[in-house]
Amino acid sequence: MIGDIVKVTVDRPLGSYHPEHKDMYYPVNYGYIQGLIAQDGEEQDAYILGVDEPVKEFVGKVIAIIHRKDDVEEKWVVASEGVYFTEEQIMKRVAFTEQYFDSKIIM
Length: 107
Hints:
Layout (H helix, E strand, L loop, with lengths): L4 E8 L16 E9 L5 E6 L8 E12 L5 E6 L7 H12 L4 E4 L1
Parallel strand pairs: 3-5
Antiparallel strand pairs: 1-2, 1-4, 2-3, 4-5, 4-6
C-alpha cells in the first residue's frame, strides 16, 4: 500500500463540510479509491495532502496509513510523488477528524 500510486475520487473537497456533521470543516481534499473495498465494506478512504485547492480527482502516492485502533477502518494519506510529510505534519492536517479516534500513523 505505502508507495502505491492511486487515483482518489474526491467527494469532500477542501473547504467543504461533512454531510452529516455540519460543523466539521474539511481543510484538505478527502475521498475514496474507487473499486478498492476497505475493512468497513466501503471504498477505501483517503486524505490528500499538499493540494491547496479543491479538486475532483487526484493521482498520487500513498505516503502513510492512519490506523484507527478504535474503529474498523483505516485512512490512507496520499500526496504528489516526491512530496513528503512528517508524522507530526500529517496528524496536524488530519486532526479535524482524527481527533475523535485513537489513531496511529504508519509510514
